[in-house]
Amino acid sequence: MGDQLTPFISAGRIQKRVAALARTISSDYKNKRPVLVGVLKGSFVFLSDLSRRLAIPHELDFLETESYGASTLSSGVVRLLKDLRVEITGRDVILVEDIVDSGLTLNCLEKTLLTRKPKSLAVATLLERKTKKRVKVNIRYRGFWIGDGFVVGYGLDYNEKFRHLPHLAFLAKTLNKPEK
Ligand code: IMP
Ligand code: MG
Q: Is the beta carbon of 74 within 6 A of some atom in ligand 1?
């Protein structure tokens, strides 16, 4: 069984979109010093590009949630594996995600972070899936909408593979050999 990739969004298009998001965020947070919280591991490429394009001072921190592991389906279970180091009480926080699918991860993270009484909490995601969403989440900054299909690249993985790709691609399982 092999993995077949079909191009989805080019590196150039991603960079243009990230630059536009960074301009919007820089203007929305003018004279502020937000904390950008990346949700590991998928958001690390998006966060690093976004951060380097922001024209405002900001801090960076990371959270890690339980991932899907080897499955391409949501387990529906969200567990915090790594917590923040920065104290976010009274701070402007921007949660940075790679993709919002069912919304479960984001919903859980929002609830957790809000108990710490940040001054504000906004969400920036590279991708938001149109269909399958089960939980209502408020997304202030979105890179692109996406329909069905599992995407990899630009930080997103399948079984820890493909994170390094500069573009986004759909992953298709190709059945070359019969499975055991
Ligand atoms: P949610 O909790 O269902 O919204 O899932 C969000 C998380 O699932 C994302 O942060 C990703 O880590 C993972 N995920 C969902 N869809 C994809 C995909 O198409 N490719 C890679 N990871 C995905
Ligand atoms: Mg993620």
A: yes
Cα–Cα dist 111/36, whole Å: 17
Of the residues 98, 100, 138, which should be mutated to test ligand 1's pocket, given the most ligand atoms within 8 Å of the CB? 98
Pair 177, 1: CB distance under 8 Å: yes
Q: How close is the Cα of 167 to the center of ligand 1, in Å?
A: 17
Distant-in-sequence, close-in-space partners of 13: CB < 8 Å, separation ≥ 6: none
The pair of structure tokens assigned to 26 is 């820089």
From the CA of 180, how far away is ligand 2's center (Å)? 30
In angstroms, the CA 135 to CA 74 distance is: 13
Residue 98 annotated among the catalytic residues of the structure: no
Q: Which of 31, 158, 43, 25 has its CA nearest to residue 105?
A: 43
Instruction: Read off φ and ψ for residue 142, nearest 5 degrees.
Output: -130, 135
Tens-of-pLDDT digits for all 180 residues of the chain? 578 999 999 999 999 999 999 999 999 999 999 999 999 999 999 999 999 999 999 999 999 987 554 454 555 567 889 999 999 999 999 999 999 998 988 988 999 999 999 999 999 999 999 976 678 888 999 999 999 999 999 999 999 999 999 999 999 965 555 444
Query: The pTM is what?
Result: 0.91
| 99 CA to centre of ligand 1 in angstroms | 5
